[in-house]
Design goal:
single chain, about 290 residues, alpha/beta, Spore Coat Polysaccharide Biosynthesis Protein SpsA, Chain A, 2 domains, seven-stranded mixed β-sheet, three-stranded mixed β-sheet, 11 helices, about 40% helix, globular
Length: about 290
C-alpha cells in the first residue's frame, strides 16, 4: 500500500503580524506532512512585518514559498471584501502555477492561527475518506483552551481546506462574508462541508481586531437572508445567548439595509440559497 502523500497549497493573508510571524513559520515547519506551496499575501503592514518577510527566500517543510505585497488606499484592517480580495490574490497566483492541476487540497491559514502538528494530516485523511465532503476545518481554540464559537459545525475560514476538485468546481468569490459564501458555492455544486472535531488550531480571540454586529446585519441582508431568519437569529442572541446589544444591533443592521435598499449579492443562485437557508438547515439538506 502506498502512503498517502497529499499535495497542499495554502494562502496566508498578513497585516501587522510581526509578533506572530516566527511562531507561524515554526508551526508550518513542524507539520507532520510537507506543504507543497505557501503564499503569503502581505498588505500595508507598518510594524516591520513587510521588511521581515522580504528577507525570506524559503521556509522549512514548504516546497514552494511565495510572498506577494499588495497595497490598498484604505489601509485599515477590514474583514469584508478587502480580506476576500487578499485571499483571492493568493488563489489567483496558485491557479497560474504549473503545478495547480496536480494539487489535492487548497486552503487558507491566517498568520495568527497555529495548527497542531498533525492538523493537515488529519484533515486530508478525513477529506480523503469522505468523498462527499468538499471543505473542512478543525475547531479553533484560544491558548487558554477556550472554544472560539458555539457552532462547532461551521467550517472556519481561518484554517479551512478545500478538496482541489471542489475548489475548481465551486471557486472563490470576492464578497462580504466570503467564508460563508464559499460554503454556499460548494453546496450548490453538490458538495458537503463539515468540521473535523478532533483537529485543533490555536488562535487569538475571535473579533479582537474588529466586531460590529450592525455590519453583520447588513452582511446578512447582502447575502439574501429573509427577515424571518433575521428575527429568529436576533431573538436567539438576545434570549438564549443573553447578548441583547449584539442581537439588537444585528437586527437593526439588517432592517436599515432593507429600508435603504443597500446592495445585495448579484448571483441569483446564491440569493436563492440564502433565502431558503433556514428551511434547508431544518431539513438538513446541506
Amino acid at each position: 500500500m502506498t502512503d498517502f502523500k497529499p499535495s497542499i497549497a495554502l494562502v496566508t493573508p498578513l497585516k501587522d503580524e510581526i509578533d506572530n510571524i516566527e511562531k507561524f513559520f515554526s508551526n508550518i515547519s513542524s507539520q507532520s506532512i510537507p506543504i507543497k506551496c505557501l503564499i503569503i499575501v502581505e498588505n500595508d503592514s507598518s510594524d516591520g512585518s513587510k521588511e521581515y518577510l522580504n528577507k525570506l527566500t524559503s521556509i522549512k517543510n514548504v516546497e514552494h514559498f511565495k510572498l506577494i505585497n499588495i497595497n490598498f488606499e484604505d489601509t485599515s484592517y477590514r474583514v469584508g471584501k478587502k480580506y476576500a480580495t487578499i485571499i483571492n490574490t493568493g488563489f489567483q497566483y496558485i491557479q497560474n502555477t504549473p503545478f495547480y492541476n496536480t494539487l489535492d487540497y487548497i486552503g487558507i491559514l491566517d498568520c495568527d492561527v497555529f495548527p497542531e502538528i498533525n492538523y493537515y494530516s488529519k484533515l486530508t485523511q478525513f477529506l480523503k475518506n469522505n468523498r462527499e465532503i468538499g471543505i473542512s476545518s478543525g475547531l479553533t481554540y484560544t491558548k487558554e483552551g477556550k472554544l472560539h464559537i458555539a457552532d462547532t459545525n461551521f467550517v472556519r475560514g481561518n484554517s479551512r481546506l478545500w478538496k482541489a476538485s471542489c475548489f475548481r468546481e465551486s471557486g472563490y468569490m470576492i464578497a462580504f462574508t466570503a467564508d460563508t459564501v464559499s460554503i454556499a458555492l460548494a453546496h450548490l455544486k453538490g458538495w458537503k462541508t463539515e468540521t473535523l472535531k478532533s483537529a485543533r488550531v490555536i488562535s487569538r480571540e475571535v473579533n479582537v481586531r474588529i466586531a460590529n454586529s450592525r455590519n453583520k446585519g447588513y452582511h446578512a441582508f447582502y447575502r439574501g437572508h429573509t427577515l424571518t431568519y433575521i428575527f429568529f437569529k436576533s431573538l436567539f442572541l438576545i434570549v438564549i445567548k443573553g447578548k441583547f446589544k449584539m442581537g439588537y444591533e444585528f437586527f437593526v443592521g439588517y432592517v436599515s439595509s432593507w429600508v435603504n435598499r443597500m446592495p445585495r449579492i448579484e448571483n441569483k443562485h446564491l440569493r436563492k440559497y440564502f433565502q431558503f437557508y433556514m428551511f434547508n438547515k431544518l431539513i438538513k439538506k446541506y
